[in-house]
Amino acid sequence: MSEPGWAPLTGFRVAVTSARRADELSALLRRRGASVTSAAAIAMVPLPDDDELRAHTEALIAAPPDIVVATTGIGFRGWIAAADGWGLDEQLLTALGSARVVSRGPKATGALRAAGLPEEWSPDSESSREVLHYLREGGIEGLRIAVQLHGATAEWDPFPEFLDELRAAGAEVVPIRVYRWHPVPRDGAFDQLVTAVAERKFDAVSFTSAPAVAALLMRAVDLGVEDKVLSALRTEVHAMCVGPVTARPLVRLGVPTSAPERMRLGALARHITDELPLLQARTVQVAGHCLEIRGTCVMVDGEVKELSPTGMATIRALALRPGSVVSRGDLLSALPGSSSDTHAVETAVLRLRTALGDKQIVSTVVKRGYRLAVDDPYPIGAA
Questions:
Q1: Which residue has the higher pLDDT, 36 or 3?
Q2: What is the pLDDT of residues 179-195, one digit of tens each?
Q3: From CA 97, how far away is CA 116, in angstroms rounded?
Q4: Please, are residues 46 and 70 in contact by the beta-carbon 8 Å criterion?
Q5: Which has the closest alpha carbon to 15: 238, 264, 250?
Q6: Burial 102-131 (b: 16+ CB within 10 A, else e)
Q7: Where is the signal peptide (predicted)?
Q8: Sign of the C-alpha dihedral, residues 199, 205, 208, 210?
Q9: Cα–Cα nearest to 325, from 371, 379, 377, 378
Q10: Residue 51 phi, psi dihedral angles, 5° rounding
């Protein structure tokens, strides 16, 4: 059999919010046919310039903690690397070596052992809930616990309940925020991306970190489009996250999320490739053809048909209820622009029929409007 002349993500629009490795993820998605818009949601504070991290490091050296919790491998390694740059690495490792060391999972465990700090305990999973249970079972009242956090700010931590419950159990908690971030400046590419999400101009938005999710939500508030962004993410714009920690801020807001089994960039690209057509494409049998409606194109019997924005708006309006008649007035309101002339509908339908290659796909219902000439009133795919 010959290979199809299209890639699996042909016709789909994906937004990339990553600050790191955005070019790599964008290339993977474009290779699979997606139209990609990339704008970093956050800017990282360079470790050598992080005065807050240095101050906390010096404070722990002066007064070592009773317990240290490593939550991420890259974050813990970054902390040690920053201390090395300040000439404080040996003093820091000595201070941490006097404490009980707990790891949140295999990656953090590897970083601890590489630094010569064997862990007292670690769960098989990367569950902060299991770590919390272990610490509380052993008793932590009155103890000073240093918790290494990744991708945090003073206003936002990736594990807020974890820290709060440690405090509720009587511990003094010292958050060590490694790889802190701040939102990118206003009036740039990221603002345009957030606005486009609100206007549902994407089929999916990819997130590789919880801070990127938080930054998008905060910027939506700043731009006055929070309700529109949340509505889009709950319906037509699918949130694709690299893992459950990244997805957590969205889950709390009732936004459906999707993630690969392995928390890797390549796995995320493959996951989007596999899942987005199932989530977003609408497929119907029309006039003896298999019609698949995607973000920016239509496929007729597996052949890509490029449509104008007006053509896409027309076919989407007709496909909302396949086989039902759509009035000229309803079609006019669905078209881009603000025309009040129903002649624009006739022109749009004429051009749509030509682009699809078979004029029988869209039927005229005299004095009522237009309809898709469906073979089966029930769609095969999902909206």
A1: 36
A2: 888 889 999 999 999 99
A3: 8
A4: no
A5: 238
A6: bbbbebbbebbeebebebeebbeebebebb
A7: none
A8: positive
A9: 371
A10: -65, -35
Q: Of 144, 126, 154, which is closest to residue 68 (Cα–Cα)?
A: 144
Q: What is the largest CA-CA distance in the chain?
A: 85
Dihedral sign for Cα 272, 277, 279, 280, please: positive
Fold of 13-43+184-280: Rossmann fold (3.40.50)
**CB neighbour list of residue 68: distance below 8 Å, 6 or more residues apart:** 96, 99, 100, 101, 102, 117, 145, 146, 147, 148
Q: Which two structure tokens, joined as six digits, stand for 187?
A: 């009036």
State which fold the 282-372 domain adopts.
Arc Repressor Mutant, subunit A (1.10.10)
Question: Is 47-179 in the same CATH topology as 13-43+184-280?
Answer: yes
Residue 203 CB neighbours (<10 A): 26
pTM, two decimal places: 0.75
HSE of 304, CA atoms in CB hemisphere, 13 A: 15
Query: Please, which pLDDT band fits residue 382 given cuts at 50, 70 and 90?
Result: very low
Residue type, 92: L
The domain segmentation of the chain, as residue ranges, is 13-43+184-280, 47-179, 282-372
Q: Which CATH architecture has domain 47-179?
A: 3-Layer(aba) Sandwich (3.40)
Q: How far apart are CA 112 and CA 73, in angstroms?
A: 8
